[in-house]
Amino acid sequence: MDNYQRFLQAFNELERVIQHRLKVDAKYNLGSLLRIAQQAHDQLITSHYKELDFLRNFRNILVHEGIQAEGEIATPSDFLIEKIEFITMKIREAKKIKDLFRSPVISFKLEDTLHDVLQAVNQYGYTKFPVFAQDHLVGVVTDNGITKFMADQLQEDLISIKSVHLQSILDLDKRKDSFMVVNEDTSIYDIDDIFTQKIKEGKSSFILLMARDHQVDHPDDITGIITPWNLPTIIENL
């Protein structure tokens, strides 16, 4: 097989992999796929936009101009073919957040107490806990909320942490809604993009709740928690 055939074979495989990732029919060519990826804010594909657009143009020239010239007008280099194969592999094997961050999550109910949370902090080392009212997610208790509550209670000689319910903590926690629910099949490229944007907005404590779907109706729906502290792991796996 010469490089002309190798290039077309590699290019067709690249299109199939992108079609599969975007969940679209085989009728969409690479130009259409790039537009769909942009509309879907697919960070993995759009990060290679210039390279993919070049390959698209090169392929069109190679095929259509070659037909008019009744022969090959250019010979794809080994480097170019290897580049296609590398991008194809990167898209096909892109890690999902569930591959890196799926772990048990400790959650609480509104009627649970500060004592319960502090015990979990001591036992597990976690500092962020989803809170539910029946089967409804109402917020996330953070170390910030706990610290704020304790500071506001300094005037009291004694605080009974067993009598302080989480509703009181959430009422003072400005970061209780600083989270987003994301599907556990989300690419780490998209997560990197989300955190980058939130940090630009000044939301450096923003967290992501990983779920089997895009919504959380029950504590068991949450399969992991991702924080900005996980960015080194994310970047390492890009």
How is this structure best described in words?
This protein is of the alpha/beta class and 238 residues long. The chain folds into two domains: 3-94, no CATH class; 99-236, CBS-domain (Roll). It is built from eleven helices and six strands. The protein has helices at 3-22, 30-39, 43-46, 49-68, 78-92, 97-101, 114-124, 143-152, 166-172, 188-200, 231-236, and strands spanning 108-109, 128-133, 136-142, 179-183, 207-211, 222-226. Strand 2 (128-133) and strand 3 (136-142) form a beta hairpin. Helix 1 runs parallel beside helix 2 (30-39) and helix 8 packs across helix 9. The radius of gyration is 25 Å and the shape is elongated. The mean pLDDT is 89.
Please report which band the strand proportion falls in: under 5%, 5-15%, 15-25%, 25-35%, 35-45% or over 45%: 5-15%
Give the C-level CATH assignment of the largest domain.
Answer: Alpha Beta
Which outline best applies?
elongated
Assembly type of the chains comes to single chain
CATH topology category name of the largest domain: CBS-domain
Report the C-alpha radius of gyration, rounded.
25 Å
Helix and strand element order = HHHHHHEHEEHHEHEEH
> If strands are numbered along the chain, what order do they take across the biggest sheet?
1-2-3
What structural category characterises the helix and strand content?
alpha/beta
